[in-house]
Write a structure and sequence with these properties.
Length: 464
């Protein structure tokens, strides 16, 4: 269940305009260190690291960066077989981020668990206490209201840290997070830790991952970890900043003292990004604003979120739980669903082209028979009073790993099943099976058409 909070950014900060008309500005920085020599420079000089960025950051609607390390005592650092440094962050440093103008910090990286699970939790809590969004894998997607737009941000790390954990691409869980984000927000941003340190071009893993993320719904990809700038590119029509390099860091190699800020604007429903270079002077870890940096033109027309019976359906996070809100155009009144354990959501014509729009969700619920916590598909109808369940998560033929409407034919539900059965549960059973179903008015019936089944296999990237 998500623990992050939705942040409504309705106004601006320090009296500066964040939106000029329909122009919503979003800024993304590279890696941020608040330990080691950065901490020492702050303490010794008494200077503020972001003195040169006040007008830029406070004049934007949303500013996010990647925070390397964890809040806590350095004595709690976990051992690292690789010799990787431990970045402990003093709690007193976190308010500096708010003062700088940041609104969110990514904490999905190889240093997020330097102080173990307790340190990771303390980091999230310290950020939230300062009104900052903590972008973590566990709480993704985070839904953020920015001006007139709803953004969904997914934080991913492909680089293992002290806990050994990392996400994989492709991944069923990541595909679900992207589907939830794509269908319930205007813009999908992927904040990703990947690549090879000090390599100034994207490696094969990054390129393959970027293509997969875009195919599965990402509008904008913001990359970190190499500590040097990797040139941004258009990938399948979407801007990909493979690495923004360092923003506030104490590394001394010349290339690590150059950074890039992704400078993105949404105007009239179109996202466009440019770049602002930064330069850290020799003998300091504090960056200075530089000149504009070339970024390939890659405008993205944002797709509207799910529409169910005329209601635009959006997601919110309230008190750590997902809820959905629906509103018709030009209507002030909106309905709000109860808290739901959402895994994914999408709208479609389950009853055929002439039928009504329904909302299909995947939700995580315990079984009433054996208590197993598993995925359950739900079908909802949208009315003036809110969502009405037409089908309440009964099991399909086998235990479920994923389910999605077939692109181009939303009357078909494609399912990815485990190999075990409901009679003998073996969640660890090797292999998967795909199946197809159609809505019959009160549930789902199996589809045996070979062509449809093949499309479902392709959708879930299942090899024969």
């Amino acid at each position: 269940m998500p623990r992050a909070r939705s942040i409504l950014i309705a106004g601006c900060f320090f009296g500066l305009a964040c939106c000029a008309g329909d122009d919503v500005r979003l800024l993304f920085t590279g890696d941020i260190l608040l330990s080691r020599q950065v901490r020492r420079e702050i303490e010794v000089t008494g200077r503020f690291p972001w003195d040169g960025f006040a007008q830029l950051f406070h004049g934007a609607a949303w500013v996010a960066g990647n925070l390397e390390g964890a809040v806590g005592d350095p004595r709690e650092c976990l051992p690292a077989a690789s010799g990787s440094p431990c970045f402990d962050i003093p709690p007193a440093s976190i308010p500096l981020l708010t003062r700088a103008g940041f609104r969110a910090l990514g904490i999905a990286n190889n240093h997020a668990f330097d102080l173990g699970s307790a340190g990771h939790r303390a980091t999230r809590e310290a950020l939230q206490h300062e009104g900052l969004e903590a972008l973590s894998w566990e709480d993704s997607p985070a839904f953020v209201k920015i001006g007139a737009y709803d953004a969904a941000v997914i934080a991913v790390s492909l680089v293992p840290g002290r806990d050994g954990a990392r996400q994989q691409i492709p991944s069923t869980e990541l595909r679900q997070k992207l589907r939830l984000a794509r269908n319930l927000a205007d813009i999908v941003v992927v904040f990703i830790h990947w690549g090879s340190e000090l390599l100034d071009w994207p490696d094969t893993e990054q390129r393959n991952a970027a293509g997969w993320l875009v195919r599965n719904g990402a509008d904008l990809i913001i990359g970190h970890h190499p500590h040097v700038v990797q040139a941004p590119e258009c990938v399948q029509g979407r801007p990909v900043f493979f690495s923004l390099g360092n923003h506030l860091f104490d590394q001394k190699y010349p290339a690590t003292k150059q950074g890039l800020i992704a400078d993105c604007h949404i105007r009239a429903g179109v996202l466009e990004c440019a770049g602002i270079g930064t330069q850290t002077p020799t003998g300091s870890a504090f960056p200075q604003p530089g000149v504009a940096s070339f970024v390939p033109s890659c405008p993205v027309r944002l797709a509207p979120p799910a529409n169910v019976n005329g209601y635009a359906v959006r997601a919110r996070v309230l008190d750590g739980e997902y809820v959905m809100e629906g509103r018709r155009p030009l209507e002030a009144r909106a309905w709000r669903s109860p808290a739901l354990p959402l895994v994914s959501a999408e709208a479609g014509k389950l009853a055929g082209p002439a039928g009504p729009d329904y909302l299909l969700t995947l939700e995580r619920h315990p079984s009433s028979l054996d208590g197993e916590d598993g995925l359950r598909p739900y079908v909802y109808e949208a009315r003036e009073t809110g969502l009405v369940a037409r089908w309440r998560g009964s099991a399909l033929a086998w235990p479920l790993l994923d389910a999605a409407l077939l692109p181009g034919n939303s009357a078909v539900l494609c399912a990815l099943h485990r190999r075990d059965s409901f009679l003998v549960l073996q969640p660890g059973a090797s292999g998967v099976r795909t199946a197809a179903y159609r809505w019959n008015g009160f549930g789902f019936s199996g589809v045996d058409d070979p062509q449809t089944l093949e499309k479902c296999r392709v959708l879930f990237e299942v090899e024969r």
